[in-house]
Specification:
Structural class of chain A: alpha+beta
Shape of chain B: globular
Radius of gyration of chain A: 21 Å
Order of helices and strands of chain A: EEHEEEEEHHHHHHHH
Strand order of the largest sheet of chain A: 2-1-5-3-4
Order of helices and strands of chain B: HHHHHHHHH
Helix content of chain B: over 70%
Number of domains of chain B: 1
Structural class of chain B: mainly alpha
Number of helices of chain B: 9
Largest sheet of chain A: 5 strands, mixed
Number of strands of chain A: 7
Oligomer: heterodimer
Distance between the termini of chain B: 49 Å
CATH superfamily of chain B: Fumarate reductase/succinate dehydrogenase, transmembrane subunit
CATH topology of chain B: 3 helical TM bundles of succinate and fumarate reductases
CATH architecture of the largest domain in chain A: Orthogonal Bundle
Shape of chain A: elongated
Strand content of chain A: 5-15%
Strand content of chain B: under 5%
Distance between the termini of chain A: 55 Å
Largest sheet of chain B: none
Largest interface: A-B, 51 and 43 residues
CATH architecture of chain B: Up-down Bundle
Number of strands of chain B: 0
Chain lengths: 256, 220
Amino acid sequence: MDLTLKIWRQKNSSAKGKFETYKVNDVSPDSSFFEMLDTLNQQIIETGNDPVAFDHDCREGICGTCSLYINGRPHGPKRGITTCQLHMRSFKTGDTIVIEPWRAKPFPIVKDLLVDRSALDLIIQAGGYVSVNTGGIPDANSIPVQKQKADLAMDAASCIGCGACVAACANASAMLFVGAKVSQLALLPQGKVEAADRVEKMVAMMDMLGFGNCSNTYACEAECPKEVKVTNIARMNRWFIRSKVGAEKPEAATYD
Amino acid sequence: MSTLFKYSSITKKIIMGAFGLFLALFLLVHLTINLLLLSGDGGKMFSAASEFMTTNVLIKIFEYVLFGGFFIHILFGVIVTLKNWASRPVGYYTSNKSHTSFFSKYMFHTGVIIFIFLLLHFMHFFFIKTGWVQPPAGIEKHDFYGLAVALFTHKIYSLIYIAFFVFLGFHLNHSIQSGFQTLGLNHNKYNSAIKIVSLVYSVIVAGGFSLIPLYFMFIF
């Protein structure tokens, strides 16, 4: 396959970036998108230039490190996969592929296609945990958990924190991410205890970091590589309402 | 004003959504009364209903609640949208190709169009009632039937009204289901039902209101 790549190049976070066009020839349709980018980088290095910087780690769709906004979609044209699971057979020879970094105020560009997503870590640090040690694996059935709830918690927990929801959202909202993190804990007995307090802390941090407001376009669900559902956002909203009007919590833990 | 911006994202959305659902319900009341225009009795029933709506004390109080509802819905809509725009200062080169419902992306735009319509609609009725705008020659300012006939026998105005109702329908179609989601009233069992209700409701409201100018254009 012969391809034209239009890639965003930016030296550092403060530099002004621009698109550069590259040609890559003889790409195997069976190679992964990243193997294609590796080939490109080899070409660039051989000409003595700076290779394209992009995030990647496990290359098997579980770590959430890879990103890339490919032809107008985070993680490219296929549903339910990460960029590292994307293969070149999804494109045709002669195609022009536009590759951009994820754009959101809380995701500053570090270099080229690489963005700093530590804002998502800060949201977790604000309350995305159970604050006591819950010990080792309990005996089976010592804490009864409804099967359906366990499944929903597992589905929510499949979020790998890649930030595709933010990248896809017209408002750069992180509500699918926060909804998933709130849900995975609120659905289980150990996490439910602090659910009301947790949702307020995490939402307050999300707002402070400059993420937008969900306008229910559901682009996040369509682009999530783990297909996390927007029902998690509704659950987060329910817990948020409950925290405001029902749940008892210490005075110090109230937020606007 | 700055306090309003400090409300959490979900609080702002809940306020906007709850008032939006309230306004959507009001539209049904408004439509029910307006459909009396089609009764063919020379406006007797419609005039009786409008007299009740303009003189009853409880309705007059409700009028202020309604204006408050519009004000809060619009205010929070603008605040939320400004924050959303600020959340992505540098946009993408390629426009987004994600599979989303078309109208969900244009709620602010359809909202602005509806607001412009609302001003026009007030010029044609409410501001005439309050005396801020002169009624057309020969029509008394409380004669809503006369005002409606004078307005909708103009083909241009009728077409403008119908065009606005189409945008109102688009706005409603997304907003009802969206309001449920924002209020956390989302459940796998009922989601498809909510979507259908949303669509049917928007068709009834937009279609119902459009019947009135159509009636005056072709049947009256």
